Amino acid sequence: MTRNTFIVTALLALVGLVTPASARDADGPPPSLQKGERVALSVTVIEMSNGAPMVDPKLKALARHFKQSFKNYKTFKHVASHAMRLVQGKPAAQSVRGKRLEAEYLGRKDNVMRVQVKFDGARMTMKVRDGGLWFHAGRRGKGGTVTVLALRARRQ
To answer: CA Rg, the chain, in Å?
Structure first.
């Protein structure tokens, strides 16, 4: 190790030791330190297509989101609703339209919850605030229909 490399390494180590803990932890504890947190995940299964304009009355609360997120589709039918309770670090599973939906709460940082979702061959991590809504549109099926999962996560 050259003398300059040694000096730079020593200075970097010293800066790390002198930095106040409040500055190092300004973002809060990492998600892995928030063990035991619980999240309620509500799953609404929707079938959308390009048929005659129609929104199922059970989807009235979500209708305004359809115009923004799925403007090329006109028909939205409620298929099913499921509730999942997630504990950080413990995956939970549910059968949705004959396919396995797996969800795992990964923790939160800066009030943003991270939930990993696996469904129909796709794996994604949703990042939402408490009560936030997230959509996952699946593959196009018979007759041009698409299965959509509307996921809402709330801390318990």
So the answer is: 22
The separation between CA 6 and the C-alpha centre of its own chain, rounded to angstroms, equals 44
Asked if the model's pLDDT at residue 22 lies above 60, the reply is no
Query: What is the per-residue DSSP string for the chain?
Result: --HHHHHHHHHHHHHHHHS-HHHHTTT-S-GGG-TT-EEEEEEEEEEEESSSSEE-GGGGGGHHHHHHH-TT--EEEEEEEEEEEEETTB-EEEEETTEEEEEEEEEEETTEEEEEEEETTEEEEEEEETT-EEEEEEEE-GGG-EEEEEEEEEE-
Question: What is the phi/psi pair of residue 74, to 5°?
Answer: -120, -25
Predicted model pTM: 0.74
Q: Confidence class of residue 12 from pLDDT cuts 50, 70 and 90?
A: very low
At 130-153, the pLDDT tens digits run 999 999 998 888 888 999 999 999
Other beta carbons within 10 Å of 47 = 19
Please tell me whether residue 47 adopts helix, strand or coil conformation. strand
Distance CA 11, CA 97 (A): 59
pLDDT for the residue 68: 87
